[in-house]
């Protein structure tokens, strides 16, 4: 179905331009059918990553809006530094100058999100960073590098336009031609080995019909290596971690999503320099299993996929989906997302992931949790009011060849159903609603795990966001009320009430190498919160990442709405928290000013996660919307009238904005 969107754009012309913006109108393309979004189960649609949903399956109405400054558009100085920027100590990592994009394609020619950052253990002044980057007119895995501790950055282009269609080292991969070309990419992550080589993991995909003229809806996970030059360039072609060939667009092959990577960079580890990648496979049988593959030859080749989400009594609700992964094992832990691998000094590999097979997840069934087709329950009881999910952790002690049955690292409550509380916006996704009557914050967001091992004492730490926590619970007016029967999204009383619901970053600790955690038996209302500042008790923190310094200091960065009027306007900041014992945390502000809610991609996509590196001081790495988006002024670029550049307002922000990525070197605060 085609739908026409009409939006008034308010002109704000730059000093270099004159003229005004008029009414824009345009039509929205129908959702792609090749990947069969409509045929996914409700739980699969709920779990699909934000980028995958945006790029492959969902309508993109293109919010018409504008902005007002040239600091990100016109290069400064005589050197070839592009449009580098320093906002009172916050350093722009993507050094490119903004592309002027047609109003109906906001974000498609200029946006950056989903950040990852790592430091070189042989030279901590050398950092490499990655993000989804849209400057080429589509999503792309882009990287940047710094050789001066993050004070300045240069971009490096990843050569992923095509891969081998029939790689000789893996006859199981066959795309039917010598080359397989890719339309887009994202879900990036970076890491270093002990020799100073950098690695990049990149998801690639094709959109199929009708978004493109090509029916191909194949997807793959690629691994790139920067050999000894600190992220300045990358090998070509990328090596397959996993490939799913569907060149005819049948929609029957699994879609590969949300892969993240780590490298065992502990000198002396039995698996030193082994590269690990984990991901989710959305299969035609309705399942979403977590898999892992490893490379023991510096990324040249990778192993066969290994099932991570093994069977466990912790998983009881299977949604009527498949319980038999690719190698014939049986596992009821068949609905998962957002896996993150990390290693200990002893070579152990840990994988934390969000799991939705606990009994309280029954509201994600296609019948809304009321029993019937696809349900395990023999009764027709209504969906429970409790709507928590669980973070599971699986461990491998043989270099990723096998995994233990998962343990529960923590229970958590996901962010609320967006459409219910934000005037119908971003239906089918969760978000971080601001308090009060406005609905400007409707970008998709979800709570996820981020873990690390303390190199000083071996403690395993897993962080996760939770909408129910010690600051946000029934006693102060935040009450879980089940799930939206149409979308499976979580419902709560108190979402829009100041002082009632708010998201916290929780921390769960294992002192026995992952056999059990404080969050195994402690529910979210009593679990330690990273957010211990007074202003955080009534405000939202989300999009976190965790890392230890080499000396064992824990750093956790996150988006934070404790500053100014963020909690009521939908603006955001970034904070850095630190702890010596994973119990007492101190917090300091990272951003030098607040960031408005995103307006690109119609305001619904801001990325799914952020990054953090901690070689001694910390480097939070985040999406930033303080730069305006620019447009050609209406009435210019015509015969007899030269083009001029304008800004404009947006439906959810006074000035339409660009998504860039920023970092800063920051002292880790502790108590």
Structural summary, described in words:
The protein is mainly beta. It has a single domain, classed as Neuraminidase, CATH 2.120.10.10. Helix content is 4%, strand content 32%. The protein contains 5 helices and 37 strands. The protein has a 5-stranded antiparallel sheet with strand order 4-5-37-34-33, with no helix packed on it. The chain has a 4-stranded antiparallel sheet with strand order 6-7-8-9, with no helix packed on it. It has a 4-stranded antiparallel sheet with strand order 12-13-14-15, with no helix packed on it. A hairpin with a 7-residue loop joins β8 and β9 (154-156). The radius of gyration is 23 Å and the shape is globular. The chain starts with a strand and ends in an 8-residue tail after the last strand.
The backbone outline, from C-alpha atoms, is: globular
C-alpha Rg (nearest Å): 23 Å
- Provide the spatial order of strands within the biggest beta sheet: 4-5-37-34-33
Strand percentage, roughly? 25-35%
Whole-number tally of structural domains: 1
Terminal CA distance: 57 Å
User: Segments where pLDDT lies below 50 for 5+ residues?
Assistant: 1-35, 57-68, 370-383
CATH architecture assignment name: 6 Propeller
* Major pleated sheet: 5 strands, antiparallel
Tally of contiguous helical segments: 5
């Amino acid at each position: 179905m085609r739908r026409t969107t009409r939006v008034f754009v308010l002109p704000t012309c730059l000093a270099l331009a004159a003229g005004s913006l008029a009414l824009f109108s345009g039509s929205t393309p129908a959702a792609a059918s090749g990947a069969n979004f409509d045929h996914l189960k409700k739980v699969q649609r709920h779990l699909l990553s934000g980028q995958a949903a945006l790029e492959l399956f969902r309508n993109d109405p293109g919010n018409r809006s504008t902005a007002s400054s040239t600091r990100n558009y016109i290069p400064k100085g005589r050197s070839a530094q592009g449009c580098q920027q320093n906002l009172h100590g916050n350093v722009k990592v993507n050094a490119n100058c903004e592309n002027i994009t047609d109003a109906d394609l906001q974000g498609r020619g200029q946006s950056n999100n989903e950040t990852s950052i790592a430091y070189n253990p042989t030279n901590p002044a050398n950092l490499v960073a990655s993000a989804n980057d849209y400057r080429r007119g589509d999503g792309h895995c882009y990287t940047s590098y710094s050789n001066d501790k993050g004070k300045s950055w240069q971009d490096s282009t990843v050569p992923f336009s095509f891969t081998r269609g029939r790689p000789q080292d893996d006859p199981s991969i066959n795309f039917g031609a010598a080359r397989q070309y890719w339309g887009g990419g994202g879900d990036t992550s970076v890491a270093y080995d002990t020799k100073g080589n950098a690695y990049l993991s990149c998801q690639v995909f094709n959109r199929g019909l009708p978004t493109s003229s090509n029916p191909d809806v194949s997807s793959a996970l690629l691994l790139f290596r920067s050999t000894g030059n600190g992220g300045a360039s990358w090998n070509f072609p990328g090596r397959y971690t996993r490939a799913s060939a569907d060149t005819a667009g049948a929609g029957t092959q699994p879609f590969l999503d949300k892969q993240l990577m780590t490298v065992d960079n502990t000198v002396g580890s039995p698996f030193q320099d082994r590269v690990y990648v984990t991901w989710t496979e959305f299969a035609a049988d309705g399942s979403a299993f977590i898999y892992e593959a490893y490379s023991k030859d510096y990324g040249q080749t990778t192993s066969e996929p290994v099932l991570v989400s093994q069977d466990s009594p912790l998983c009881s609700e299977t949604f009527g989906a498949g319980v038999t992964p690719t190698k014939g094992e049986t596992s009821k832990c068949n609905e998962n997302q957002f896996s993150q691998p990390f290693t200990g000094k002893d070579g152990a590999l840990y994988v934390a992931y969000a799991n939705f097979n606990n009994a309280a997840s029954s509201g994600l069934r296609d019948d809304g949790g009321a029993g019937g087709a696809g349900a395990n329950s023999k009764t027709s009881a209504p969906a429970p009011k409790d709507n928590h999910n669980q973070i599971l952790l699986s461990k491998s002690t043989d270099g990723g060849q096998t995994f233990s049955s998962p343990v529960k690292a923590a229970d958590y409550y996901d962010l609320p159903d967006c459409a219910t509380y934000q005037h119908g916006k971003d239906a089918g996704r969760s978000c971080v609603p601001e308090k009060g009557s406005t609905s400007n914050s409707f970008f998709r967001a979800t709570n996820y795990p981020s873990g690390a091992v303390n190199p000083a004492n071996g403690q395993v730490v897993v962080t996760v966001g939770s909408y129910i926590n010690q600051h946000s619970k029934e006693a102060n007016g935040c009450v879980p009320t089940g799930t939206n029967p149409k979308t499976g999204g979580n419902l709560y009383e108190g979402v829009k009430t100041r002082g009632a619901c708010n998201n916290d970053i929780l921390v769960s600790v294992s002192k026995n190498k992952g056999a059990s955690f404080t969050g195994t038996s402690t529910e979210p209302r009593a679990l330690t919160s990273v957010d211990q500042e007074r202003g955080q008790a009534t405000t939202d923190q989300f999009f976190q990442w965790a890392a230890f310094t080499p000396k064992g200091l824990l750093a956790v960065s996150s988006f934070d709405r404790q500053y100014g009027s963020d909690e009521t306007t939908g603006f955001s900041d970034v904070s850095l928290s630190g702890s010596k014992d994973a119990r007492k945390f101190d917090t300091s502000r990272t951003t030098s000013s607040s960031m408005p809610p995103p307006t690109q991609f119609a305001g619904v996509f801001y990325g799914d996660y952020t990054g953090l590196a901690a070689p001694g001081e910390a480097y939070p790495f985040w999406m930033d919307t303080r730069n305006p988006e620019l447009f050609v002024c209406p009435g210019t670029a015509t015969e007899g009238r030269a083009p001029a550049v304008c800004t404009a307002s947006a439906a959810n922000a006074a000035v339409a904005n660009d998504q860039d990525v920023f970092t800063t070197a920051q002292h880790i605060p502790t108590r």
